[in-house]
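Lab notebook, bench 4. We co-purified these components, and the gel suggests they stay together. Before we commit to crystallization screens, I want a quick structural picture of the whole thing.
Request: model the full complex, all chains together.
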Amino acid sequence: MSLTAYNNVPVPSFMYGTAWKKEATTQLVQSAVNAGFTAIDTANQLIHYQEALAGDALLALAQQGIARDRLFLQTKFTPTNGQDHRTPYDASADLTTQVIQSFDSSLAHLHTDYLDSYVLHGPYQQQGLGVADREVWAAIEGLYRSGRTKMIGISNVTAEQLTQLCVEATVKPMVVQNRCYAARGWDKEVREACRAHGIIYQGFSLLTANQGIFAEPAIRAIAQRLGAGLAQVVFRFAMQIGMLPLTGTTNPQHMKEDLQAEQLILTDEDMQVIETIGM
Ligand SMILES: NC(=O)c1ccc[n+]([C@@H]2O[C@H](COP(=O)([O-])OP(=O)(O)OC[C@H]3O[C@@H](n4cnc5c(N)ncnc54)[C@H](OP(=O)(O)O)[C@@H]3O)[C@@H](O)[C@H]2O)c1
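Here is the predicted assembly.
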């Protein structure tokens, strides 16, 4: 299964996230691809990700016969406010140079000459977009126009920021990646803005951000009726409502279970129950 954004590039319907895997990143990326994931999310940000170790996994997978073009690789430009002293660019350089240096470093880490998706990790300010966001987005648009990335996107945005970006940008984002809280209607406002602009919404921390819903009898009853796990019900709900979920599991059995969520079918009533469950 795949999704498409407004520029018609196919994106796998489930993504494996590599945050917080530390030294286990190489092994876990290999396990995830061997379990059936074809999309990998990382970031050039050593505080939370080991992009180079994800790259080591890609080398091992290539030796195993899994070629680069069978995988969808997504990584991020993380501004200085999300980095420690180990910035993958000259932090004193202008922002356009920072983006280009970070991008080149990501390509080197991932042993590739193109990305499938390149994402701005987050705007510089919590509300609205400022001069820095505009400069960084223009640099990311330049990478897209050069053909070195097939899609571009933004993460950790409000609906207002996304709408503003879509109005101001020369190239609108094709993906948005946000933490998805059930208590906010599963980020309903941002999902609706994505739908209006033909943008793929990627939801992360679907499980970790919503621990409270797992005690709810209504979702437990749905899982029981389907003979499925609670995580599977949440991932299937995400897919069926039109988003692309990320999973951050470190357990090979959970990798398989998460992928099997795609086979479940939730009724309209199930969907309504889950859509409003934490509100
Ligand atoms: N853009 C951003 O700012 C940003 C921020 C955070 C995350 N992300 C991305 O989103 C990815 C996922 O985030 P996340 O790790 O918070 O996601 P998550 O999938 O909600 O959380 C992972 C947790 O869920 C558990 N889990 C997964 N599948 C399970 C299953 N079938 N049964 C039971 N437990 C299960 C895992 O435990 P086990 O390990 O035991 O399976 C782990 O504790 C990250 O790796 C990263 O790529 C992006």
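The first helix runs from residue 25 to 35. Worth comparing against the SEC data before the next meeting. The longest strand covers residues 72-77.
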